[in-house]
């Protein structure tokens, strides 16, 4: 009898030969669309408020609608990819993203823009959820953890480049020009999928899944596993920490620190670069250490950073010092995302698409929730951001602790039974 994570612990260190460099680059591109579409136009929020003759809260809805679309899209495209294979739903989602991106560029008013962003998120979600499933199809354990971390490096270029471009290009090309860049990225995503991605979910496995559905009524019972639920929560609440920071960053850097859009983009990009570098470090660490131990280190660092940020905020420290724990919090998430994803999906490889959908839906559902919460105190305080970040990190710690205890209990029970 084996536990849910035995495959993670016993997987050989060598990477899967099925994940080629071109495929990994394309999967990174698929994972980059959502953060690029999220971050690129943030510096243009004040301009959008003026040009669309609306409020800052309404402009914020364009971000919330996109996140809701990504959440719903993963719940749609993940199970579809388990049923019909990875490629057909992936192509359909990429095509929808292209169409919605074009509508967003030419939106005549904020209502149309909000709707377009909703469908843009819906289509863009296909690449994220199915990209993770493709890796799960081709590798498990440490190889999967390294592949997810390396995919994050490729996808992590988006949050590095996006705010820099947004800050530099808001004035010369405006918010419509920034959304046109997102349209171009969506077209590139569709072309790359058609050119590189091949079916990775064998028909025999799809047939077995259908047979299980007939026999048991639902193969999704495996999603009740404490392992996948626990590590999914760790991933999602870790992402909530980052999304809280992303949503509040324009106000923290521009309003509280008094920086212009270009400098804001540089600082935002520096934090994203830390995430990329630490993700690369994570892929190296898992070659000699267990995936669980690297994940634990990451969560510990994130929690310590959010607590430090909260202490600075509520002690009234100079605003500049807030940039330090934000940098370490975002960077430390590079030890969390890839490893938590590998541990969650390795628990249910037979329905990786559905498992990826649950992970991604919770991820962006929480992101949509925390996005407006960090602005409740207005544009001149970071108190709501500090509260949300500490709360999300604390829940991630509890989820990790409960999951590890459940795994130890399962191993003890298995040893006793034998």
Quick overview of this protein structure:
This protein is an all-alpha fold and 418 residues long.
Q: Describe it for me?
A:
By secondary structure, the chain is mainly alpha-helical. It has one domain: MFS general substrate transporter like domains (Growth Hormone, Chain: A), CATH 1.20.1250.20. 80% of the residues lie in helices and 0% in strands. Helix 2 packs antiparallel against helix 6 and helix 10 runs parallel beside helix 12 (323-332). It starts with 5 loop residues before the first helix and ends with a helix. The model is unreliable at 1-17 (pLDDT under 50).
How would you spell out the order of helices and strands? HHHHHHHHHHHHHHH
Q: Helices and strands: which structural class?
A: mainly alpha
CATH superfamily: MFS general substrate transporter like domains
Helix content: over 70%
Instruction: State the CATH architecture.
Output: Up-down Bundle
Estimated radius of gyration: 21 Å
| CATH hierarchy class name | Mainly Alpha
What is the number of helical segments per DSSP (H or I, 4+ residues)? 15
User: What overall geometry do the principal axes of the alpha carbons give?
Assistant: globular
- Name the average pLDDT: 83
Q: How far apart are the termini?
A: 8 Å
Bin the strand percentage: under 5%
Q: Remind me, CATH topology?
A: Growth Hormone, Chain: A
Flag low-confidence runs.
1-17
